[in-house]
Design a protein that fits this description.
Blueprint: H1 2-16, H2 18-23, H3 27-61, H4 77-95, H5 99-129, H6 141-170, H7 176-195, H8 209-228, H9 237-242
Helix pairs in contact: 1-3, 1-4, 3-6, 4-5, 4-7, 5-6, 5-7, 5-8, 6-8
Length: 248
């Protein structure tokens, strides 16, 4: 389920980011989003290859019907709702490219989907699939390395969104309360996705749900402080493009 959801999520945001690139005026911003689209496409390809080259052979060997990472059975209502709202926020920029709508779009994608959902999920999977943490379990080096490199890319993407939100707040174009309001509206959906009521939880593998929630909360509060506090710095575009990830 986790691999399917990450793969589908990468595919969805690859499709949904195009309106943002169109609505932005600054050429440096447009170039960054172009590289981000490329990286999200590489992430999608990684999960698609893993499904075809690893999961399908195992299913066939066990006599199961081969599945698809896009089967509806992997996704709950909250997951579909979150990505539908992200798509709507991005497409709204084509008709109304206001500072408030840009802020909402960055909050939907960069702060919530990548900053909270993806970064926390990848962190949890890294811990769960780490050879050092669980030497008694089968080690999946390709999947683990993919999580590690994708998380580096996602960190760079989150930094871009933070930088753009800081510009909007510091220049007085957007009230900081709009950021809190937008994120808080989406957090129940993130909680519903992370709950996975149909998936058995093993306490001996990876961080507990409480640990993941604490990780997500601490990281989000740190990001919000950097965005709202004039004395706090966030990465600039030049430094963001120097970091390496799976897209390189």
């Amino acid at each position: 389920m986790g691999v399917a959801r990450f793969g589908a999520g990468e595919q969805a945001v690859t499709e949904d980011l195009a309106p943002l690139a169109t609505a932005l005026d600054d050429i440096d911003d447009q170039l960054f989003i172009t590289t981000q689209l490329y990286e999200e496409g590489k992430h999608t390809d990684h999960f698609d290859r893993y499904w075809r080259e690893v999961i399908h052979p195992v299913e066939e060997e066990l006599g199961f019907e081969t599945s698809s990472p896009t089967d509806e059975k992997w996704f709950n209502e909250e997951y579909n709702d979150l990505f539908e709202r992200n798509e709507e926020a991005m497409h709204r920029l084509l008709d109304e490219p206001t500072p408030e709508n840009f802020a909402r779009a960055y909050c939907h994608y960069h702060l919530v989907i990548e900053g909270i959902l993806a970064q926390t999920g990848y962190y949890g999977l890294q811990q769960a699939y780490s050879k050092d943490n669980h030497p008694d379990l089968p080690y999946l080096p390709g999947l683990y390395e993919g999580f590690t490199l994708i998380r580096q890319d996602e960190g760079r993407h989150v930094g871009f969104g933070m930088a753009k939100l800081k510009e909007l707040v510091s220049e007085g174009d957007v009230d900081p309360s709009l950021l809190d309001e937008t994120v808080n509206e989406l957090l129940p959906l993130v909680d519903g996705i992370a709950a996975n009521p149909d998936e058995e939880y093993r306490e001996d593998i990876g961080p507990s749900p409480e640990e993941l929630q604490q990780f997500a909360t601490e990281k989000h509060l740190q990001r919000m402080e950097q965005i709202k506090d004039a004395a706090e710095d966030v990465p600039d575009l030049e430094s963001l493009t120097e970091l390496e990830g799976v897209g390189d």
